[in-house]
C-alpha cells in the first residue's frame, strides 16, 4: 500500500498518512535515519485521537523540518502496533536513528506536546 503525502504550502514538512505494516519500515525506520519521525498511533473511533491529530499536524508545520509526522491507524497496522506495545491510544512515539527514543500516551494539551517535542528533539546520541 502506498502512503499519502500531504504537502503544506510554504513548509518543507510532510505528514505521511496510511502508514501500515507493509510500509512502516520504509516510512518510519529508514526516514528516521535522516530526520526524527513522530508516529501518531490512532484509530477512527478514538475521540481523544481525533483531538490530538490536528495538534500534531499543526506542530509539524510550525517546527518546519525538525521532524516528520507519520500516522498509523492501529486497526490497519496490527503487527506494528503489537511490536511497539501499543495498548492505549492515542499513543505517540518518536523515532531517531532507526530506534524509538521516547513517547507519550493520551491526548495531551498542545503546550505539553510542545514541551515533549522540545525535550526529545534535543536528545544527543
Main attributes?
alpha/beta, six-stranded mixed β-sheet
- Total of domains: 1
Which class best fits the helix and strand makeup?
alpha/beta
Mean pLDDT: 87
CATH classification, class level? Alpha Beta
Which helices and strands, and how do they pair?
Blueprint (H helix, E strand, L loop, with lengths): L3 E4 L6 E6 L4 H7 L6 E6 L4 H16 L5 E6 L4 H6 L7 E6 L2 E7 L4 H12 L4
Parallel strand pairs: 2-4, 3-4
Antiparallel strand pairs: 1-2, 3-5, 5-6
What can you tell me about this protein's structure?
The protein is an alpha/beta fold. The protein has one domain (4-121): Glutaredoxin. It contains four helices and six strands.
Short synopsis of the structure:
The chain has 125 residues and is α/β, with parallel strands linked by helices. It contains 4 helices and 6 strands; from the N terminus they run E-E-H-E-H-E-H-E-E-H.
Amino acid at each position: 500500500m502506498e502512503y499519502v503525502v500531504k504537502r503544506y504550502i510554504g513548509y518543507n514538512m510532510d505528514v505521511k498518512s496510511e502508514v501500515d505494516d507493509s510500509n512502516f519500515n520504509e516510512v518510519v525506520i529508514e526516514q528516521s535515519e535522516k530526520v526524527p519521525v513522530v508516529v501518531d498511533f490512532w484509530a477512527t473511533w478514538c475521540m481523544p485521537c481525533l483531538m490530538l491529530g490536528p495538534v500534531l499536524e499543526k506542530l509539524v508545520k510550525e517546527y518546519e523540518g525538525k521532524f516528520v509526522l507519520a500516522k498509523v491507524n492501529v486497526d490497519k497496522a496490527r503487527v506494528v502496533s503489537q511490536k511497539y506495545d501499543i495498548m492505549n491510544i492515542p499513543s505517540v512515539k518518536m523515532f531517531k536513528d532507526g530506534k524509538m527514543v521516547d513517547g507519550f500516551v493520551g491526548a495531551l494539551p498542545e503546550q505539553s506536546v510542545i514541551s515533549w517535542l522540545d525535550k526529545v528533539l534535543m536528545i544527543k546520541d
